[in-house]
Fold these 2 entries.
Entry 1:
Amino acid sequence: MSVASAEIGEGGTRGWRLRAAATPYVLLVPALLALAAVSLYPIFYGARASLHRYRYGIDMGSAGKQNYVDVFHDPVFWEAIKTTAKYVVIAVPIETLLGLGLALLVARELRFVSWIRVTLILPMTIAPVVVGVIFRLLYASDIGVANPLFEKLGLGTPNILARETSAFLGLVAVDVWEWTPLLFLILLAGLTSLPQDPLEAAEVDGASRVQAFFHHTLPLLKPVLLVAITLRTIDAVGTFDQIFVLTKGGPGTSTQLISIYAYNTAFTFTQYGQAMAMLIALLACLLLLMAAAVHFMRRTSEAVA
Amino acid sequence: MSETPVTAADPFARPLTRREVLKRGAVGTAVVFGSTIAFAPRRVWAAEHANSITMGSFQDNAMAPIRDYFNKLFTKETGIKVNYNETNYDTWYQNAKNDGLNKTGAYDIYVMDDNWVPEFAAGKIIQSLDSLGFKVNPDILEKGVEQGLWPPKRGAKMKAFAKQKPELYAIVNIDDVEILYYNKKYFPHAPQTWDDVYKVAKAKSKPGKLYGWSARGVKGNPIVQTYLPLMSAYGANFVNPDWSPGFNGPAGVAALVRLFSFIPYMPSGVAEFDTDQETQVLLQGKCTALTEYTGLVHQIDNPSASKVIHQINTAATPAQERHGPAIGTFICGIASGAKNPQAAVHYLEWFTSSRIQKEFARRGGSAAVTGSALHDPVAVKKYRWLPAIADAVNNSVPKPRTPDEPKMEDILGTALNEALVEAISKKSGYQAIAQKHLNSAAKQITSYLKQQGGYF
């Protein structure tokens, strides 16, 4: 027991001591209630909806686990999961590598570097729907610039959005264009806050820049890198706007991410229960991913320390 | 800067005690709640007794004459004010549904897409117009009126509603239907069959400069709208009366093969085309013909939208075994929680009357819902497409009448888009491609309907 507590215990009544102990918790109640209302209630409501059957837009009562059974037997759901995984696995590493490369390039104080930094983060500041419209104007086979450009280069007309593979890769390119700046920004902040002593010591010891990067900078940057990748992965799983504007999930189902399929299931097919079952299952997967990332981050931080 | 001295007269100079904060907070809250309680009943009373109705709609140019002219005319003639709110399609669908399910009473009239009717009627989101004493104008084209019936008068019916007598839940206010648009430079008269369209496409098209056909190829609803007039014309059904898919038989496959036969004469990126891209090709004078809904009629003679004004003519979509334009009317229902349902009935009867419909057709050539308006000599002289709309409505084929229609359409539309992409890339083997993808869609639709229950 601390000295202060002992003094209070000697001078105060039992009730006063209890009140003093409870005060911090009481003061926390409004914040906790606000958090519960804003963050937790929608999740609980969604989880409840995932156990209900909806027909004609009306809640018809409990469906037990049927929505989950239907979702897990729906081949389109699994296809959407596969497409989402493919999208994330391709886009996020490219964005990370580019973001890291750009951060390393502009981390040094060069002339015009502040202008370069501002220019680099511009794509991130544009609303995703607008990004979709911009790229539609670039990709569209009738008025876009892609077809004439490829034709001039003698590569034929790619009709980017009309073919499954090119539409998918076209969307990945949009994601890379828009979100590399986020990775760049986080990693730049990480780089500028790294302790300089180990790097200076390595330089004194005659380590090359590449050696210093792989043996000192990268290990020190690992926690930041992991946070950035985790955040971007979660965000990429939920990509919606650009795809809705550009392809609506087509051609076929080649760009139908889980977000698009869940949206259609809820708002076009009015199967709210099934849509929620999909999203709750996805949330569970993301929570597992986040838990693994946090665990890995702790281990890395301990190792670095 | 000199500091202001703290005086007893300055109430902000002294810090507030906790007790004072609570006291003043309580007084403030009481004032807010008190004023809400004091004014709320008056507002509710005002809304209930005001001589007004509130109409909600999705944004669409076809609604502009109603919003800007006819609602004011109704107020002038009857003294009933019409409040008109519009928003985008998806948002309005959700707003209307929530309003009706919760009987909020924010709206009296919903302007709907006709495929909302099964869900809105079965879910009691809208009221039965028959129960409200609505009198149908016999001049309204029958196929249009049928879009507002639940359960449907003909075709496949869901088991739970099969024995119920069809009731009118909504009344058509714009007869939107697919029609053929053709450039008269290439067609001396309206093509009668799909074979006629194909012959001209083959003879006249010069890829890159002039296309023989343009279509909506995007997955989902757009490509289904392209396929439906072909499918119906070749004699296939979306679903048979027993809910088994009817498009994967020989007729449905032949219809899709006919669509594929236009591939050499269509823009190369057609699989990504939606309405805007599809129609631009026609309006730029780069296409001989296409099928589209009636909204396009307002652009074909507009010099700021079209390079070929007065060159585009219209007709019912071509036949093969039969005509088969898809119908997709704008239709009005009365909200389950409407505060002024009788005024809403009055409005709908007024707007669908022969007199007002004639004026609707004469003002801009809108797709009126009565036969007399669509054949009115004054209107037709100015707007040559009106008889084609009447012809198309009379020959139209509705989509399956079920709340699950959007899912069925999505499955078919995804399969059609996949088939089109494959056919464009392989350039041959159309029959096998069509059969494979239509079979896949049929299997998925059957499986989905079984899962939902109430069909077989």
Note: Strands of chain B lie at 52-58, 81-87, 109-113, 149-150, 167-168, 170-174, 179-183, 289-292, 312-316, 330-334.
Entry 2:
Amino acid sequence: MQVTVKTFAHLRDRLGFAESAAEVPEDACVLDVWQSITDGSEMPRSVLAAVNLDYAAADTRVHDGDEVAFFPPVTGG
Amino acid sequence: MSVELRTGVFEPWRELADAPDGGLGAGAYGATCAFVGTMRDFNEGDAVSRMVLEHYPGMTERQLEAIVEEERAAHGLLAARVIHRVGPIEPGEPIVLVAVWAAHRREAFAGGRAIMEALKSRAPFWKHEQTSAGGRWVEHNTKG
């Protein structure tokens, strides 16, 4: 199945893309999506994730067509 | 309850002067508390000439709305208003307005503070600042 991956701020600079499509297995979770875009690397503690605009943990299951985002700690306000 | 993102300069005190009752009507509330965050021209010991506020369209609004609703319920707020800048911003310009209306000062102070702290830790915004040494991402918030 396919998910849309978005990245933000310095994580986008580091990964080299703002938006991309990722092919992952049917039972994939957020961590699997991270590994599919980083050649299998560990997901650093400082990386935050969201699925369909809500914060999500590394073990959150994803589904076909989901939007999965990765970004660094937020610094607004 | 209202949440807005603005791409241009806004005047928080004018916004409040134009709607001082938060839409509640005279007599419906007894306390109003407002916080304005303004861009500094320094950060972590360096002069900052300019900044860009990146956000995650869709998620930022959704998180801000969730924060306002949670703190409204937790503190018994009667109304709340949040305005936050996105895009390029210059020193001296307002970044954020959080205004709340409640029956009494305790709820107003506590609820306004809670919205601001939740925004700092949960709302997806990222600051990229320009210093004499070049551009850099702000990596963590200053202590409140």
Note: Chain A is about 20% helix and 30% strand.
